[in-house]
Amino acid sequence: MKASAKHNERIEKMTFSSVYPHYVTKVEKKGRTKTELHEVIEWLTGYDELKLQSLIDEKATFKKFFQNVKLNPNAYLIKGVICGYRIEDIENPLTRKVRYLDKLVDELAKGRKMEKILRTE
């Protein structure tokens, strides 16, 4: 499935703060914690709690959220299908980064061990 330019543009303009509460709800519903969610986000992006909160407060778009991020060197190990798209086949770099985050949140909610989510094994 190939993402259209319109789809990529929609993701670019979407605010992280509009999606974040859904991430929290999703993981907490499955017995995981907000702290674990933040650990996953920090692993991928390097953002600590303060930086994350400032991006939420300023209603940063995903474009801005990922603009200066140096992704974790093991992020390329995040593979699979999320929202109908095979992550490793996504050509748009921003869309791929957003889907990396979505996949990590999914894995957390599904009860996967942190070592596996954070690709430390």
What can you tell me about this protein's structure?
Helix content is 59%, strand content 3%. The chain has 121 residues and is mainly α. The protein has one domain: Helicase, Ruva Protein, domain 3, CATH 1.10.8.290. Helix 2 packs parallel to helix 6 and helix 3 packs antiparallel against helix 6. The model has no long low-confidence stretch (mean pLDDT 93).
Number of strands: 2
Might you state the CATH topology name?
Helicase, Ruva Protein, domain 3
Give the mean pLDDT. 93
Question: From the helix content, strand content and strand pairing, which structural class follows?
Answer: mainly alpha
Number of helices: 7
Low-confidence stretches: none
| Basic shape | globular
CATH superfamily: uncharacterized protein sp1917 domain
Could you name the CATH class?
Mainly Alpha
Strand content: under 5%
> Strand order across the biggest sheet?
1-2
Radius of gyration: 14 Å
Protein name: DUF2200 domain-containing protein
Organism: Maribacter arcticus
Pfam families: DUF2200
InterPro entries: SP1917_dom_sf, UCP033199
